[in-house]
Structures are given as structure tokens and as C-alpha cells.
Amino acid sequence: MFAVIKTGGKQYRVAANDEFEIERLPGNAGDTISFTEVLMIDTTIGAPFVAGASVTAEIVEQTRGPKVISFKKRRRQNSKRTRGHRQDLTLVRISEILTGAAS
Predict the structure, then answer these.
(1) Taking a C-beta distance cutoff of 8 angstroms, is the pair 53, 40 a contact?
(2) Main-chain dihedrals φ then ψ at residue 25, nearest 5 degrees
């Protein structure tokens, strides 16, 4: 069984025991979170969300992504700028997928 959830402005296809990184969510390692914006479960498609469905996950750790360098140079102007960015991420493990009848 799989589900498609929406979090952080992105959509993820998840199944039980999947681990993946998402945009930073508040909480500590070991906390349980629930995603209620479920767009699809197996063949059931929501309009826009599946009624009564939710996905339960556990926070594994709070982490940061790789450093991305933004370098801008204006030729013949003796002008350049370097900026770095590291995105805050949350590593989560999917515990269970609850359909409308099971929740």
C-alpha cells in the first residue's frame, strides 16, 4: 500500500517503513507526526484530499542539506558575490498509512 502526501509545498510517494528527507518540521527525534494532506491512497484519488485519510510518521533526526554555492560575477566590472545556503531538513520514517475507514 502506498500514499501520496503533500508537505513543504512538495508531493511525496510513500509506503510503510520508507525514510526520506522533507522540509524542516518542528519536533525532536522520536516524536510522532501526522500528515493529513493525503492526495492519493493506492487507487483512491482525492479531490483534492482523500477524506479521513492520514499518514503517521516518526522523526528520525533534524539535519541539514548540502551546501549550495551561489556565485555571481559581472565581467569587466571588478564585481563578484559569493553566498552559501544549507537547507534545514527533517529525516522521517513512515509508520503507517490510515485510510478513511481505518482512522
Answers:
(1) no
(2) -120, 145
**pLDDT-derived band at 46, boundaries 50, 70, 90:** confident
Which residue, chain included where needed, has cell 522523526? 59
Q: Where are the domains of the chain?
A: 2-61+91-98
Rounded distance, CA 38 to CA 5, Å?
5
User: 0.90 exceeded by the pTM?
Assistant: no
Peptide bond between residue 26 and the one before it cis (omega within 30 degrees of 0): no
For 50, phi then psi, to 5°, come to: -75, 125
Task: In whole angstroms, give the CA distance from residue 90 to residue 101.
Answer: 29
